[in-house]
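Support case: 4-nitrophenyl beta-D-glucopyranoside complex. Customer-provided input:
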Amino acid sequence: MSTTPLAFPEGFLWGAATAAYQIEGAAHTGGRKDSIWDTFARVPGAVADAHNGDVACDHYHRSSQDVALMKSMNLKAYRFSTSWARCMPDGRTPNPEGIAFYSQLVDELLAAGITPWLTLYHWDLPQALEDEGGWANRETAELFAAYAAVMHEALGDRVRIWTTLNEPWCAAFLGYAAGIHAPGRQEPAAALAAAHHLLLGHGLAVAELRRRDPEATLGITLNLTVPDPADLESEGDRDAARRIDGQFNRIFLDPLFRGAYPADLLADVAGLGLDTVVHDGDLAAIAAPLDLLGVNYYHGESLTKAPAAAEETAQPETVTTTAQAAHDSAGRPEASPFVAADGARSLPRGLPVTGMGWEVQPEGLRRLLNRLQDEYTGPAGIPIYITENGAAYPDVADADGFVDDQDRLGFFDAHLRAVRDAIDDGADVRGYLAWSLLDNFEWSFGYHQRFGLVRVNYETQERIPKASGLWYAKVAASNAVPGRTAEPAAGATGD
Ligand code: PNW
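Agent response - structure generated as follows:
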């Protein structure tokens, strides 16, 4: 099969993304103190093979080399996160040495002609704040806005794109309900409180940044899914899809873009106390106008409702593909991230899967972008950026450390074509940041899952661009997806 090159709109922003805890290492350097991920990684069974982020990709000591690598890959933008625990180790007091690391990184990026795209929170809450209740505690939202102000004071003259949170769904529901991410709590009410306080923290931070810097570009990144009923004719399956859409997508989208939690979601979670944590004025703060929406897309879901009888014996309310860590920290019974799933669960569709077991569903991305354009970002008049999309595969390096990852290359190719289709459909998508620049610490999977465009040899810290990375460098340089002569997903030779 051959396909023709596919050009993207002029000025389309090509880049790659990382996150502080996943790449930096230097966990005990320069005044940094523990984040909840340092603590969680010490819990037996929490992370595969007891891996942790102590060293990771040692990016803290290799940022110059990594910026040069990005430049060699023609990247126009780099999305990174700042570590709250490095910059304000107790959550409250600025640490100049920690902040200086990011100041230097930003200078290096700008010198290389790469736009810095800063995310304030990619899951590494200072442990000191978790000790006070974490995101279930309202004060964390206020402290987050204070942290945003400190970072802006230091970097606002050079960083023009600021996103507040990465994936509040994961932070709240994998962290506080499923317990498979830090802080490893399994408390449905705390998870809902965390979701609200994350949104509130976002809103308060946006107000703070806007006040200081009316010209800055401000946004948030959500991980969104495409929930389809397994059987459109089945009322149960349609209800399952509605619930998961509510608890995954609309719980964040509706407050951000419509200033209200969806009524059906409020009914689903009645009794879990969400109403008690929402104060007067919160929703107005959360709905502060934004300049962009960041979308992280990995896969959709085909949902069914377990028959009532089967539910007794089955795993409780599990949506498998979205929470497939299979890690059961500290030997507790598995918990679902969905606090009111009512038997909803995900059915495999027989699509190809990545190393994470996630189904490869590029057309889901096209539908998601169209939905956002029609229902949320279009009416708000703001553009969408893909802030993450990518795949883990069981890479095999040759003797020189080169990985001929035709599977990952095919994943990017297919998803970029879906983005291009969505643009043709009318979605205002302005850029694409691949996940991830480097192989890195993949949370509860440790170093076993590799998402990088660039291979990292964790013994030598050598970086070697994979076939997908070399391909992506061409995409970024030409503003087009090249034509293809082989079907990459079929595996085979790729030539
Ligand atoms: C995102 N899920 O995490 C994160 O933003 C990245 O840090 C991470 O490395 C990447 O995707 C790959 O996992 C997710 O269970 C983790 O649906 C879990 C889910 C989704 C996204």
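The chain has one domain: 6-481.

Case will auto-close in a few days if no follow-up is received.
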